[in-house]
Protein backbone atom coordinates (compact mmCIF):
# COMPACT_ATOMS: atom_id res chain seq x y z
CA UNK A 1 0.00 0.00 0.00
CA UNK A 2 1.14 3.52 -0.82
CA UNK A 3 0.73 4.61 2.80
CA UNK A 4 3.06 1.91 4.13
CA UNK A 5 5.56 2.58 1.34
CA UNK A 6 5.70 6.21 2.47
CA UNK A 7 6.30 5.09 6.07
CA UNK A 8 9.12 2.85 4.82
CA UNK A 9 10.73 5.73 2.93
CA UNK A 10 10.53 8.19 5.81
CA UNK A 11 11.30 5.83 8.71
CA UNK A 12 13.25 2.96 7.15
CA UNK A 13 15.57 2.05 10.03
CA UNK A 14 13.00 2.48 12.82
CA UNK A 15 10.65 0.36 10.70
CA UNK A 16 13.30 -2.36 10.31
CA UNK A 17 13.90 -2.30 14.08
CA UNK A 18 10.18 -2.67 14.76
CA UNK A 19 9.95 -5.57 12.33
CA UNK A 20 12.90 -7.24 14.06
CA UNK A 21 11.09 -6.91 17.40
CA UNK A 22 7.93 -8.34 15.83
CA UNK A 23 9.90 -11.30 14.44
CA UNK A 24 11.41 -11.88 17.88
CA UNK A 25 7.93 -11.77 19.40
CA UNK A 26 6.64 -14.30 16.87
CA UNK A 27 9.64 -16.56 17.44
CA UNK A 28 9.07 -16.45 21.20
CA UNK A 29 5.38 -17.26 20.74
CA UNK A 30 6.17 -20.26 18.57
CA UNK A 31 8.96 -21.23 20.94
CA UNK A 32 6.49 -21.20 23.82
CA UNK A 33 4.22 -23.59 21.91
CA UNK A 34 7.22 -25.82 21.16
CA UNK A 35 8.14 -25.74 24.87
CA UNK A 36 4.61 -26.84 25.82
CA UNK A 37 4.69 -29.57 23.17
CA UNK A 38 8.10 -30.97 24.11
CA UNK A 39 8.06 -30.52 27.89
CA UNK A 40 4.39 -30.85 28.78
CA UNK A 41 2.71 -32.97 26.05
CA UNK A 42 5.12 -35.38 24.32
CA UNK A 43 7.30 -36.10 27.36
CA UNK A 44 5.91 -34.80 30.62
CA UNK A 45 8.65 -32.99 32.54
CA UNK A 46 8.05 -33.34 36.28
CA UNK A 47 11.10 -31.39 37.42
CA UNK A 48 10.69 -28.33 39.62
CA UNK A 49 12.34 -26.00 37.06
CA UNK A 50 9.76 -26.53 34.30
CA UNK A 51 7.29 -24.06 35.85
CA UNK A 52 9.82 -21.21 36.37
CA UNK A 53 11.11 -21.76 32.82
CA UNK A 54 7.55 -21.66 31.47
CA UNK A 55 6.72 -18.51 33.45
CA UNK A 56 9.99 -16.92 32.35
CA UNK A 57 9.15 -17.57 28.70
CA UNK A 58 5.68 -16.12 29.26
CA UNK A 59 7.12 -12.98 30.84
CA UNK A 60 9.71 -12.58 28.08
CA UNK A 61 7.00 -13.06 25.44
CA UNK A 62 4.86 -10.39 27.08
CA UNK A 63 7.74 -7.90 27.31
CA UNK A 64 8.93 -8.40 23.72
CA UNK A 65 5.39 -8.42 22.28
CA UNK A 66 4.43 -5.29 24.22
CA UNK A 67 7.68 -3.63 23.20
CA UNK A 68 7.18 -4.39 19.51
CA UNK A 69 3.58 -3.16 19.59
CA UNK A 70 4.47 0.03 21.47
CA UNK A 71 7.38 0.69 19.11
CA UNK A 72 5.16 0.26 16.06
CA UNK A 73 2.43 2.43 17.58
CA UNK A 74 4.95 5.16 18.44
CA UNK A 75 6.34 4.97 14.91
CA UNK A 76 2.82 5.37 13.54
CA UNK A 77 2.10 8.39 15.72
CA UNK A 78 5.37 10.01 14.66
CA UNK A 79 4.33 9.47 11.05
CA UNK A 80 0.85 10.92 11.66
CA UNK A 81 2.36 13.94 13.44
CA UNK A 82 4.61 14.51 10.45
CA UNK A 83 1.76 13.97 7.98
CA UNK A 84 -0.52 16.42 9.82
CA UNK A 85 2.23 19.05 10.13
CA UNK A 86 3.17 18.71 6.46
CA UNK A 87 -0.50 18.99 5.47
CA UNK A 88 -0.90 22.23 7.45
CA UNK A 89 2.32 23.62 5.95
CA UNK A 90 1.17 22.68 2.44
CA UNK A 91 -2.11 24.53 3.04
CA UNK A 92 -0.11 27.58 4.15
CA UNK A 93 2.02 27.37 0.99
CA UNK A 94 -0.85 26.76 -1.46
CA UNK A 95 -2.22 29.60 -3.59
CA UNK A 96 -5.32 31.22 -2.11
CA UNK A 97 -7.19 30.55 -5.34
CA UNK A 98 -6.70 26.78 -4.94
CA UNK A 99 -7.79 26.89 -1.29
CA UNK A 100 -10.96 28.73 -2.29
CA UNK A 101 -11.65 26.11 -4.98
CA UNK A 102 -11.35 23.28 -2.45
CA UNK A 103 -13.46 24.98 0.22
CA UNK A 104 -12.94 24.97 3.95
CA UNK A 105 -15.36 22.07 4.56
CA UNK A 106 -13.33 19.54 2.56
CA UNK A 107 -10.04 20.75 4.06
CA UNK A 108 -11.44 20.53 7.60
CA UNK A 109 -12.66 17.01 6.81
CA UNK A 110 -9.13 16.17 5.71
CA UNK A 111 -7.59 17.61 8.87
CA UNK A 112 -10.06 15.87 11.17
CA UNK A 113 -11.61 12.76 9.63
CA UNK A 114 -8.79 11.69 7.30
CA UNK A 115 -5.99 12.29 9.79
CA UNK A 116 -8.02 10.54 12.50
CA UNK A 117 -8.57 7.49 10.29
CA UNK A 118 -4.85 7.27 9.54
CA UNK A 119 -4.13 7.54 13.28
CA UNK A 120 -6.56 4.70 14.06
CA UNK A 121 -4.93 2.57 11.39
CA UNK A 122 -1.52 2.94 12.98
CA UNK A 123 -2.98 2.07 16.38
CA UNK A 124 -4.28 -1.18 14.84
CA UNK A 125 -1.25 -1.79 12.60
CA UNK A 126 0.64 -3.80 15.28
CA UNK A 127 -2.21 -6.33 15.29
CA UNK A 128 -1.95 -6.76 11.53
CA UNK A 129 1.83 -7.09 11.55
CA UNK A 130 1.81 -9.54 14.47
CA UNK A 131 -0.92 -11.61 12.84
CA UNK A 132 0.97 -11.92 9.55
CA UNK A 133 4.33 -12.73 11.18
CA UNK A 134 2.82 -15.26 13.59
CA UNK A 135 0.91 -16.95 10.77
CA UNK A 136 4.06 -17.37 8.67
CA UNK A 137 6.15 -18.51 11.63
CA UNK A 138 3.50 -20.93 12.86
CA UNK A 139 3.18 -22.42 9.39
CA UNK A 140 6.91 -23.15 9.39
CA UNK A 141 6.62 -24.84 12.80
CA UNK A 142 3.60 -26.89 11.75
CA UNK A 143 5.47 -28.08 8.65
CA UNK A 144 8.05 -29.62 10.98
CA UNK A 145 5.32 -31.60 12.73
CA UNK A 146 3.41 -32.90 9.67
CA UNK A 147 3.79 -31.74 6.09
CA UNK A 148 0.63 -33.47 4.86
CA UNK A 149 -1.51 -31.96 7.60
CA UNK A 150 0.05 -28.56 6.91
CA UNK A 151 -0.88 -28.76 3.21
CA UNK A 152 -4.53 -29.52 3.99
CA UNK A 153 -4.61 -26.94 6.77
CA UNK A 154 -2.97 -24.41 4.44
CA UNK A 155 -5.69 -24.99 1.82
CA UNK A 156 -8.32 -24.57 4.53
CA UNK A 157 -6.62 -21.37 5.75
CA UNK A 158 -6.26 -20.10 2.16
CA UNK A 159 -10.02 -20.47 1.70
CA UNK A 160 -10.48 -18.70 5.04
CA UNK A 161 -8.22 -15.81 4.06
CA UNK A 162 -9.70 -15.58 0.55
CA UNK A 163 -13.22 -15.37 1.96
CA UNK A 164 -12.06 -12.74 4.43
CA UNK A 165 -10.46 -10.66 1.69
CA UNK A 166 -13.57 -10.84 -0.49
CA UNK A 167 -15.60 -9.46 2.41
CA UNK A 168 -12.96 -6.87 3.31
CA UNK A 169 -12.86 -5.67 -0.31
CA UNK A 170 -16.54 -4.79 0.05
CA UNK A 171 -15.67 -2.93 3.23
CA UNK A 172 -13.13 -0.89 1.25
CA UNK A 173 -15.70 0.01 -1.41
CA UNK A 174 -18.15 1.31 1.15
CA UNK A 175 -15.43 3.15 3.06
CA UNK A 176 -14.37 4.96 -0.11
CA UNK A 177 -17.95 6.09 -0.74
CA UNK A 178 -18.33 6.92 2.93
CA UNK A 179 -15.44 9.37 2.74
CA UNK A 180 -17.11 11.29 -0.09
CA UNK A 181 -20.33 11.42 1.93
CA UNK A 182 -18.41 12.84 4.90
CA UNK A 183 -17.49 15.88 2.78
CA UNK A 184 -21.18 16.48 2.15
CA UNK A 185 -21.95 16.18 5.86
CA UNK A 186 -19.19 18.63 6.78
CA UNK A 187 -20.72 21.08 4.31
CA UNK A 188 -24.13 20.54 5.94
CA UNK A 189 -22.63 21.14 9.39
CA UNK A 190 -21.01 24.35 8.16
CA UNK A 191 -24.32 25.53 6.67
CA UNK A 192 -26.16 24.93 9.95
CA UNK A 193 -23.49 26.60 12.10
CA UNK A 194 -22.64 29.57 9.86
CA UNK A 195 -26.25 30.23 8.85
CA UNK A 196 -27.72 29.79 12.31
CA UNK A 197 -29.23 33.30 12.53
CA UNK A 198 -30.90 33.15 9.13
CA UNK A 199 -32.14 29.61 9.78
CA UNK A 200 -33.58 30.67 13.13
CA UNK A 201 -35.50 33.48 11.43
CA UNK A 202 -36.69 31.35 8.51
CA UNK A 203 -37.90 27.99 9.79
CA UNK A 204 -39.04 26.97 6.30
CA UNK A 205 -35.47 27.31 5.07
CA UNK A 206 -34.26 25.48 8.18
CA UNK A 207 -36.65 22.62 7.39
CA UNK A 208 -35.50 22.59 3.76
CA UNK A 209 -31.84 22.41 4.80
CA UNK A 210 -32.59 19.68 7.33
CA UNK A 211 -34.95 17.55 5.25
CA UNK A 212 -33.51 17.97 1.75
CA UNK A 213 -29.80 18.42 2.44
CA UNK A 214 -28.79 16.94 5.78
CA UNK A 215 -31.18 13.96 6.01
CA UNK A 216 -30.31 12.49 2.55
CA UNK A 217 -26.59 12.85 3.27
CA UNK A 218 -26.97 11.39 6.76
CA UNK A 219 -29.00 8.47 5.38
CA UNK A 220 -26.38 7.84 2.72
CA UNK A 221 -23.69 7.84 5.42
CA UNK A 222 -25.78 5.49 7.58
CA UNK A 223 -26.32 3.11 4.65
CA UNK A 224 -22.65 2.82 3.79
CA UNK A 225 -21.41 2.59 7.40
CA UNK A 226 -23.92 -0.19 8.11
CA UNK A 227 -22.89 -2.04 4.96
CA UNK A 228 -19.22 -1.59 5.78
CA UNK A 229 -19.73 -2.84 9.34
CA UNK A 230 -21.83 -5.76 8.05
CA UNK A 231 -19.08 -6.97 5.75
CA UNK A 232 -16.44 -6.32 8.42
CA UNK A 233 -18.29 -8.35 11.06
CA UNK A 234 -18.99 -11.05 8.47
CA UNK A 235 -15.26 -11.23 7.75
CA UNK A 236 -14.44 -11.53 11.48
CA UNK A 237 -17.06 -14.22 12.10
CA UNK A 238 -16.10 -16.10 8.93
CA UNK A 239 -12.49 -16.20 10.11
CA UNK A 240 -13.54 -17.20 13.64
CA UNK A 241 -15.71 -20.10 12.51
CA UNK A 242 -13.16 -21.32 9.97
CA UNK A 243 -10.41 -21.30 12.63
CA UNK A 244 -12.54 -23.46 14.91
CA UNK A 245 -13.30 -25.70 11.93
CA UNK A 246 -9.56 -26.06 11.30
CA UNK A 247 -9.12 -27.59 14.77
CA UNK A 248 -11.80 -30.20 14.03
CA UNK A 249 -10.16 -30.87 10.66
CA UNK A 250 -6.79 -31.48 12.36
CA UNK A 251 -8.18 -34.13 14.72
CA UNK A 252 -10.09 -35.76 11.85
CA UNK A 253 -6.88 -36.04 9.80
CA UNK A 254 -4.99 -37.41 12.82
CA UNK A 255 -7.57 -39.91 14.03
CA UNK A 256 -9.49 -40.88 10.87
CA UNK A 257 -6.67 -40.73 8.31
CA UNK A 258 -3.91 -41.68 10.72
CA UNK A 259 -1.60 -38.91 9.55
CA UNK A 260 -0.37 -38.11 13.05
CA UNK A 261 -0.71 -39.18 16.63
CA UNK A 262 -2.82 -37.45 19.25
CA UNK A 263 0.12 -35.45 20.63
CA UNK A 264 0.86 -33.90 17.22
CA UNK A 265 -2.86 -33.18 16.72
CA UNK A 266 -2.96 -31.51 20.15
CA UNK A 267 0.08 -29.38 19.27
CA UNK A 268 -1.52 -28.47 15.93
CA UNK A 269 -4.72 -27.47 17.71
CA UNK A 270 -2.82 -25.53 20.36
CA UNK A 271 -0.95 -23.63 17.63
CA UNK A 272 -4.17 -22.85 15.77
CA UNK A 273 -5.78 -21.65 18.99
CA UNK A 274 -2.70 -19.53 19.61
CA UNK A 275 -3.08 -18.10 16.08
CA UNK A 276 -6.81 -17.51 16.38
CA UNK A 277 -6.66 -14.20 18.30
CA UNK A 278 -3.80 -12.62 16.30
CA UNK A 279 -5.33 -13.73 13.01
CA UNK A 280 -8.78 -12.40 13.92
CA UNK A 281 -7.18 -9.17 15.12
CA UNK A 282 -5.33 -8.91 11.82
CA UNK A 283 -8.57 -9.40 9.88
CA UNK A 284 -10.23 -6.80 12.11
CA UNK A 285 -7.35 -4.36 11.63
CA UNK A 286 -7.30 -4.65 7.85
CA UNK A 287 -10.40 -2.45 7.26
CA UNK A 288 -8.85 0.35 9.32
CA UNK A 289 -5.75 0.17 7.14
CA UNK A 290 -7.91 0.23 4.02
CA UNK A 291 -9.82 3.21 5.42
CA UNK A 292 -6.50 4.91 6.10
CA UNK A 293 -5.46 4.32 2.49
CA UNK A 294 -8.74 5.92 1.35
CA UNK A 295 -8.01 8.87 3.65
CA UNK A 296 -4.43 9.12 2.39
CA UNK A 297 -5.63 9.09 -1.23
CA UNK A 298 -8.13 11.82 -0.36
CA UNK A 299 -5.39 14.00 1.13
CA UNK A 300 -3.32 13.57 -2.02
CA UNK A 301 -6.28 14.54 -4.23
CA UNK A 302 -6.29 18.03 -2.75
CA UNK A 303 -3.32 18.83 -5.02
CA UNK A 304 -1.80 21.27 -2.55
CA UNK A 305 1.60 22.87 -2.88
CA UNK A 306 4.55 20.50 -2.37
CA UNK A 307 5.89 20.34 1.16
CA UNK A 308 8.73 22.67 2.07
CA UNK A 309 9.86 22.63 5.71
CA UNK A 310 11.13 26.19 5.88
CA UNK A 311 9.44 29.59 5.81
CA UNK A 312 11.67 31.61 3.46
CA UNK A 313 12.29 35.15 4.65
CA UNK A 314 10.96 37.52 2.00
CA UNK A 315 13.19 40.28 0.69
CA UNK A 316 12.01 43.81 1.46
CA UNK A 317 11.68 46.67 -1.03
CA UNK A 318 12.24 49.63 1.31
CA UNK A 319 12.75 52.40 -1.25
CA UNK A 320 10.19 51.64 -3.93
CA UNK A 321 8.47 54.56 -5.67
CA UNK A 322 5.93 53.08 -8.10
CA UNK A 323 3.94 49.87 -8.37
CA UNK A 324 2.50 49.00 -11.76
CA UNK A 325 0.04 46.42 -13.07
CA UNK A 326 0.65 46.16 -16.81
CA UNK A 327 -1.86 44.29 -19.00
CA UNK A 328 -2.76 42.00 -16.08
CA UNK A 329 -5.46 39.44 -16.91
CA UNK A 330 -7.13 36.92 -14.61
CA UNK A 331 -10.04 34.56 -15.20
CA UNK A 332 -11.69 31.99 -12.96
CA UNK A 333 -11.55 28.36 -14.01
CA UNK A 334 -15.10 27.54 -12.95
CA UNK A 335 -16.87 30.40 -14.78
CA UNK A 336 -16.50 32.71 -17.73
CA UNK A 337 -15.85 35.89 -15.72
CA UNK A 338 -12.48 37.51 -16.27
CA UNK A 339 -10.72 40.63 -15.10
CA UNK A 340 -8.50 42.73 -17.32
CA UNK A 341 -6.42 43.65 -19.01
CA UNK A 342 -5.66 45.89 -16.03
CA UNK A 343 -3.26 48.80 -16.35
CA UNK A 344 -2.65 50.70 -13.13
CA UNK A 345 0.26 52.64 -11.68
CA UNK A 346 0.33 53.42 -7.95
CA UNK A 347 2.70 56.01 -6.54
CA UNK A 348 4.07 55.62 -3.06
CA UNK A 349 2.03 57.49 -0.43
CA UNK A 350 -1.14 57.74 -2.54
CA UNK A 351 -4.65 57.27 -1.23
CA UNK A 352 -6.76 55.46 -3.83
CA UNK A 353 -10.46 54.63 -3.63
CA UNK A 354 -12.01 51.88 -5.75
CA UNK A 355 -15.73 51.68 -6.51
CA UNK A 356 -17.80 49.21 -8.49
CA UNK A 357 -20.93 47.12 -8.36
CA UNK A 358 -21.27 43.58 -7.08
CA UNK A 359 -19.45 41.16 -9.37
CA UNK A 360 -17.58 43.93 -11.13
CA UNK A 361 -14.18 42.49 -10.15
CA UNK A 362 -13.21 44.73 -7.20
CA UNK A 363 -12.25 41.90 -4.87
CA UNK A 364 -10.45 40.07 -7.67
CA UNK A 365 -8.42 43.19 -8.39
CA UNK A 366 -7.59 43.44 -4.68
CA UNK A 367 -6.38 39.83 -4.70
CA UNK A 368 -4.26 40.46 -7.79
CA UNK A 369 -2.83 43.67 -6.39
CA UNK A 370 -1.76 41.99 -3.15
CA UNK A 371 -0.29 38.98 -4.96
CA UNK A 372 -2.82 36.51 -3.53
CA UNK A 373 -4.00 35.67 -7.05
CA UNK A 374 -1.49 35.08 -9.82
CA UNK A 375 -2.40 36.67 -13.18
CA UNK A 376 -2.72 34.41 -16.21
CA UNK A 377 -0.97 37.07 -18.27
CA UNK A 378 0.53 40.48 -17.82
CA UNK A 379 3.18 41.75 -15.45
CA UNK A 380 3.46 43.39 -12.03
CA UNK A 381 6.37 45.80 -11.83
CA UNK A 382 8.04 47.63 -8.97
CA UNK A 383 9.95 50.72 -10.07
CA UNK A 384 9.81 49.36 -13.60
CA UNK A 385 11.29 45.96 -12.69
CA UNK A 386 9.09 42.84 -13.08
CA UNK A 387 8.35 40.94 -9.89
CA UNK A 388 9.86 37.45 -10.01
CA UNK A 389 7.04 34.93 -10.50
CA UNK A 390 8.82 32.33 -8.38
CA UNK A 391 9.11 34.59 -5.32
CA UNK A 392 5.69 36.13 -4.66
CA UNK A 393 6.49 36.37 -0.93
CA UNK A 394 8.89 39.25 -1.62
CA UNK A 395 6.13 41.23 -3.30
CA UNK A 396 3.46 40.34 -0.72
CA UNK A 397 5.70 41.69 2.01
CA UNK A 398 4.67 45.17 0.85
CA UNK A 399 1.05 44.62 1.91
CA UNK A 400 -1.14 44.44 4.97
CA UNK A 401 -4.87 44.02 4.41
CA UNK A 402 -8.26 44.02 6.07
CA UNK A 403 -10.66 41.99 3.94
CA UNK A 404 -14.44 41.89 4.27
CA UNK A 405 -14.33 38.34 5.65
CA UNK A 406 -11.86 39.43 8.29
CA UNK A 407 -10.17 36.88 10.56
CA UNK A 408 -8.86 38.17 13.87
CA UNK A 409 -5.57 36.79 15.13
CA UNK A 410 -4.96 36.96 18.85
CA UNK A 411 -1.37 38.23 18.72
CA UNK A 412 0.00 41.56 17.55
CA UNK A 413 3.07 41.12 15.37
CA UNK A 414 5.46 43.75 14.14
CA UNK A 415 7.97 43.63 11.28
CA UNK A 416 9.84 40.33 10.76
CA UNK A 417 7.40 38.57 13.10
CA UNK A 418 8.78 40.39 16.15
CA UNK A 419 6.55 41.86 18.89
CA UNK A 420 4.63 44.93 17.78
CA UNK A 421 5.84 48.41 18.72
CA UNK A 422 4.07 49.17 22.05
CA UNK A 423 4.01 52.92 21.39
CA UNK A 424 2.40 52.42 17.97
CA UNK A 425 -0.17 50.00 19.41
CA UNK A 426 -1.07 52.36 22.25
CA UNK A 427 -1.37 55.31 19.88
CA UNK A 428 -3.68 53.48 17.46
CA UNK A 429 -5.78 51.94 20.21
CA UNK A 430 -6.58 55.51 21.18
CA UNK A 431 -7.29 56.57 17.59
CA UNK A 432 -9.55 53.53 17.13
CA UNK A 433 -11.40 54.24 20.40
CA UNK A 434 -10.53 50.75 21.68
CA UNK A 435 -8.21 51.58 24.60
CA UNK A 436 -10.74 50.59 27.26
CA UNK A 437 -12.40 47.83 25.25
CA UNK A 438 -9.44 45.67 24.31
CA UNK A 439 -7.55 43.53 26.80
CA UNK A 440 -3.89 43.02 25.93
CA UNK A 441 -1.28 40.94 27.70
CA UNK A 442 2.24 40.88 26.28
CA UNK A 443 0.98 41.51 22.77
CA UNK A 444 -1.81 38.92 23.00
CA UNK A 445 -5.44 39.95 22.60
CA UNK A 446 -7.47 38.37 25.38
CA UNK A 447 -11.01 39.34 24.35
CA UNK A 448 -12.02 38.66 20.76
CA UNK A 449 -15.78 38.59 21.42
CA UNK A 450 -16.41 41.98 19.85
CA UNK A 451 -18.97 43.52 17.53
CA UNK A 452 -18.33 43.34 13.81
CA UNK A 453 -17.32 46.98 13.65
CA UNK A 454 -14.96 46.57 16.61
CA UNK A 455 -13.42 43.49 14.98
CA UNK A 456 -12.70 45.58 11.89
CA UNK A 457 -10.95 48.15 14.09
CA UNK A 458 -8.78 45.49 15.70
CA UNK A 459 -8.03 44.04 12.26
CA UNK A 460 -6.83 47.50 11.20
CA UNK A 461 -4.67 47.65 14.33
CA UNK A 462 -3.16 44.26 13.44
CA UNK A 463 -2.44 45.51 9.92
CA UNK A 464 -0.83 48.74 11.11
CA UNK A 465 1.28 46.89 13.69
CA UNK A 466 2.96 44.99 10.84
CA UNK A 467 4.40 48.33 9.63
CA UNK A 468 4.18 47.49 5.94
CA UNK A 469 4.11 50.06 3.17
CA UNK A 470 0.73 49.42 1.54
CA UNK A 471 -2.59 48.85 3.29
CA UNK A 472 -5.57 47.40 1.45
CA UNK A 473 -8.96 48.04 3.04
CA UNK A 474 -11.97 46.22 1.58
CA UNK A 475 -15.18 48.03 2.59
CA UNK A 476 -13.60 48.71 6.00
CA UNK A 477 -15.98 51.52 6.99
CA UNK A 478 -19.14 49.61 6.03
CA UNK A 479 -19.50 48.15 9.54
CA UNK A 480 -18.76 51.39 11.44
CA UNK A 481 -21.31 53.76 12.92
CA UNK A 482 -21.75 57.09 11.06
CA UNK A 483 -19.65 59.03 13.57
CA UNK A 484 -16.66 56.70 13.42
CA UNK A 485 -17.03 56.34 9.67
CA UNK A 486 -16.44 60.08 9.36
CA UNK A 487 -13.54 59.74 11.80
CA UNK A 488 -12.03 57.07 9.58
CA UNK A 489 -12.10 59.14 6.39
CA UNK A 490 -11.27 62.53 7.86
CA UNK A 491 -8.77 61.57 10.58
CA UNK A 492 -7.47 58.00 10.36
CA UNK A 493 -6.68 57.88 6.64
CA UNK A 494 -4.70 61.15 6.78
CA UNK A 495 -2.84 59.81 9.83
CA UNK A 496 -1.88 56.71 7.88
CA UNK A 497 -0.65 58.85 5.02
CA UNK A 498 1.44 60.86 7.48
CA UNK A 499 3.04 57.54 8.46
CA UNK A 500 4.02 57.07 4.81
CA UNK A 501 1.37 54.47 4.05
CA UNK A 502 0.03 53.86 0.57
CA UNK A 503 -3.68 53.11 0.93
CA UNK A 504 -5.89 51.21 -1.50
CA UNK A 505 -9.47 51.31 -0.19
CA UNK A 506 -12.57 49.75 -1.70
CA UNK A 507 -15.38 52.11 -0.72
CA UNK A 508 -18.81 53.39 -1.72
CA UNK A 509 -19.00 56.23 0.78
CA UNK A 510 -19.30 58.93 -1.87
CA UNK A 511 -19.45 61.74 0.72
CA UNK A 512 -15.77 61.12 1.41
CA UNK A 513 -14.41 60.62 -2.11
CA UNK A 514 -13.04 64.15 -1.92
CA UNK A 515 -10.29 62.83 0.39
CA UNK A 516 -8.93 60.39 -2.20
CA UNK A 517 -5.95 61.27 -4.34
CA UNK A 518 -7.43 59.16 -7.14
CA UNK A 519 -10.78 57.50 -7.71
CA UNK A 520 -10.89 54.20 -9.63
CA UNK A 521 -13.84 52.21 -10.91
CA UNK A 522 -14.28 48.54 -11.81
CA UNK A 523 -17.01 47.71 -14.31
CA UNK A 524 -17.40 44.26 -15.92
CA UNK A 525 -13.82 43.38 -15.06
CA UNK A 526 -12.36 46.56 -16.55
CA UNK A 527 -10.57 49.26 -14.54
CA UNK A 528 -10.81 52.97 -15.29
CA UNK A 529 -9.82 56.10 -13.41
CA UNK A 530 -12.55 58.66 -12.83
CA UNK A 531 -11.49 62.26 -13.32
CA UNK A 532 -13.15 65.61 -13.86
CA UNK A 533 -16.92 65.51 -14.29
CA UNK A 534 -17.05 61.71 -13.90
CA UNK A 535 -15.37 61.93 -10.53
CA UNK A 536 -17.65 64.77 -9.46
CA UNK A 537 -20.70 62.73 -10.48
CA UNK A 538 -19.45 59.66 -8.60
CA UNK A 539 -18.77 61.81 -5.53
CA UNK A 540 -22.38 63.02 -5.60
CA UNK A 541 -23.94 59.58 -6.15
CA UNK A 542 -21.67 56.53 -6.35
CA UNK A 543 -24.66 54.18 -6.22
CA UNK A 544 -25.92 55.43 -9.57
CA UNK A 545 -22.68 54.33 -11.25
CA UNK A 546 -22.96 50.79 -9.88
CA UNK A 547 -26.47 50.26 -11.24
Describe this structure in words.
By secondary structure, this protein is of the alpha/beta class. It has two domains: 2-301, ABC transporter type 1, transmembrane domain (ABC transporter transmembrane region fold), CATH 1.20.1560; 322-546, Rossmann fold. It is 64% helix and 12% strand. It is built from 16 helices and twelve strands. The protein has helices at residues 2-10, 12-42, 50-93, 96-102, 104-145, 147-194, 196-201, 203-255, 262-301, 362-369, 392-396, 422-431, 452-465, 482-498, 532-540, 542-546; strands at residues 322-331, 338-347, 351-356, 377-382, 385-386, 399-402, 440-441, 444-445, 470-474, 502-506, 518-523, 526-530. It has a six-stranded mixed β-sheet with strand order 6-9-10-3-11-12, with helices on both faces. The protein has a four-stranded antiparallel β-sheet with strand order 2-1-4-5, with helices on one face. A hairpin with a 2-residue loop joins strand 11 and strand 12 (526-530). Helix 8 runs antiparallel to helix 9. The model has no long low-confidence stretch (mean pLDDT 81). This is Multidrug ABC transporter permease/ATP-binding protein. One of its GO terms (molecular function) is peptide transmembrane transporter activity. The chain crosses the membrane at residues 12-36, 56-80, 125-144, 150-169, 231-253, 273-296. It is a multi-pass membrane protein. Residues 15-291 form the ABC transmembrane type-1 domain.
Amino acid sequence: MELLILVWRQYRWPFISVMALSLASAALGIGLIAFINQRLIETVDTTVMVLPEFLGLLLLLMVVTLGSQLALTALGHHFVYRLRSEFIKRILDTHVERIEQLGSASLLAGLTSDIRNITIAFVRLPELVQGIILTVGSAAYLAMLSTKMLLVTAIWMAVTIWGGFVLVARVYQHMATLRETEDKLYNDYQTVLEGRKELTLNRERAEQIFQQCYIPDAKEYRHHIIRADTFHLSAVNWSNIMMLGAIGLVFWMANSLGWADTNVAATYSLTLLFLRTPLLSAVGALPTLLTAQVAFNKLNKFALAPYKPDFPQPKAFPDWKTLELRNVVFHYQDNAFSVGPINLTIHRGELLFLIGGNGSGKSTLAMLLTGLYQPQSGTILLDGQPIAAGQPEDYRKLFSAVFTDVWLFDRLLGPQGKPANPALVEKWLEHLKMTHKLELNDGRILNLKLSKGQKKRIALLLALAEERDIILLDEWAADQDPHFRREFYQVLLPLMQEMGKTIFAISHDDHYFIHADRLLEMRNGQLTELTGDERDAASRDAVARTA
